[in-house]
Amino acid sequence: MARYHIETYGCTSNRGETQQIEQSLREGGHHPADSPEQADVAILNTCTVVEKTERNMLARAEELDEQTPADLIITGCMALAQGEEFEQAGVDAEILHWDKVPEHVLNGECPTVTPDTDPVLTGVTGILPIARGCMSDCSYCITKQATGKIDSPTVEENVRKARALVHGGAREIRITGQDTGVYGWDINQGESLLPELLDRICTEIDGDFRVRLGMANPGGVHGIREELAQVFAAHDQIYNFLHAPVQSGSDDVLAEMRRQHRVAQYREIVETFDEHLEYWTLSTDFICGFPTEEPEDHEASMALIRETRPEKLNVTRFSKRPGTDAAEMKGLGGTIKKERSKAMSELKMDVVGEAYEAMVGTERTVLLTEDGTDESLVGYDEAHRQIALPKAELQGLEVGNFVDVEVTSHNTVYAMGTPIDPPKQPEPVEQ
Fold first, then answer.
1. Does residue 202 sit in the same domain as residue 263?
2. Tell me, what CATH number does 264's domain have?
3. Residue 13: burial class (beta carbons within 10 Å; 0-12, 13-18, 19+)
4. Rounded-to-integer distance, Cα 273 and Cα 381, Å
5. Is 360 left (phi over 0), alpha (psi -120 to 50) or beta?
6. Which of 51, 124, 179, 425 could be a cystine partner for 134, CB 3.0 to 4.6 Å?
7. d(CA 251, CA 10)
8. How many CA atoms lie within 13 A of 291 on its CB side?
């Protein structure tokens, strides 16, 4: 039996893949090591979304190669899209797809999977990758080279995995994928199975838990927007949270990016969710400084932010990724990208801060999911907005609790709250 060490970088989907790898290793009788130095095998699950990340991955691979006395396995997006980079850097490692990692580590052993095998969780959060790959062909994206087209397990299989997570103690299920909106296109004649999956998870699984839907590109969501919003509205288990990365407010730029949506479709998605949900979070992404982005395109993106008021916003400067079509385009100067990114980030703080300011004085139900600092706990409300509870542990609260709170203040990107009815403190013991 082997002792393993796993490190994961990048998105929630990558963390989900790691959980699946670790699940297989646990089922094979293997166990985690205390450090890379004590491991029989080290596994590095990589990301390559931007150039800086790529450099960090190479540096960490070199460190692990030195620290680990036995095998090093590199998987994830950078491994699959740019595996030769590790060889050129002199890293002695096996480059493997996620699916092949457990088989390589188990080395021909045949583990027996039993119904009572505990799922691998991170605290009270379970990650459920519902599919791999996507149906897009964005001109700037290197991840597609690693993940390929959509590959969807059945709804029944995903419900089974979700049930195992809940029965294993998960209070929060994070549904992930490169593009969750197109889940099922490959097995359902081009029609999404996402609304059905969400409905069945909520109706067929017993337990007190919440579900957060991961990234769903507007091109896939647009066709199911009414049905999806209705499923959200019908089930309290689902966080009222939609991550739909628009990337630009300019149709011209979206066309050069080869995104499968246009701005009008994004607007229609937002309008539909506004109609069905009174309180929800719009999460989106923008890329600043795409090679063909003109000043008016940047202003269109800024205007779209002001119009749709996303409560969560990720701003990324364009980064040329090797092997992509956008890497061959004549780029904008670094100063231009920096200035545009700065302006958008400042607008982001204004818009997000306004949303959290509006929460002050309201009452919310929060699922506590992680430790904070100084006996505080951190969780998320019905719209998956982050709320911290100072000194919560001193009030008898713990991770996994649902608690009604009053929002008392905010710090722009998260709120602070106080339990409305904190648990009674035990009577002091007489000495």
1. yes
2. 3.80.30.20
3. buried
4. 18
5. beta
6. 179
7. 28
8. 16
- Sign of torsion over alpha carbons 245, 249, 255, 257: negative
Q: At which residue do the structure tokens 């407010």 appear?
A: 249
Range(s) of the domain holding residue 97: 3-106
Which positions ≥6 away from 45 have C-beta within 8 Å?
6, 7, 8, 9, 10, 14, 17, 18, 21, 75, 76, 98
- Whether residues 353 and 365 share a domain: the answer is no
pTM for the complete prediction? Answer: 0.80
CA angle 167, 282, 403 (to 5 degrees): 45
For the stretch 304-358, pLDDT in tens is: 999 999 999 999 889 888 888 998 999 898 899 999 999 999 999 999 999 999 9
- Are 12 and 145 in a shared domain? no
Q: How many angstroms from the chain centroid is the CA of residue 402? A: 22
Tens-digit pLDDT profile for residues 347-392: 999 999 999 999 999 999 999 999 988 889 999 999 999 999 999 9
User: Which tokens go with 106?
Assistant: 């188990």
Residue 418's beta-bridge partner residues? Answer: 406
Token pair in block for residue 70: 């036995």
Which regions of 62-119 does DSSP assign to beta strands (E)?
71-76, 94-95
Per the domain annotation, does 323 fall within a domain? yes
Which token pair is 329? 């385009």
Q: How far apart, in whole angstroms, are the C-alpha atoms of residue 34 and residue 38?
A: 6
Task: Look up residue 325 and give its amino acid.
Answer: D
Position 119 scores a pLDDT of 63
Q: Which helix (H) or strand (E) holds 317?
A: strand 312-317
Distance CA 309, CA 286 (A): 13
Closest CA to 81 of 105, 106, 57: 57
Residue with tokens 């769903």: 216
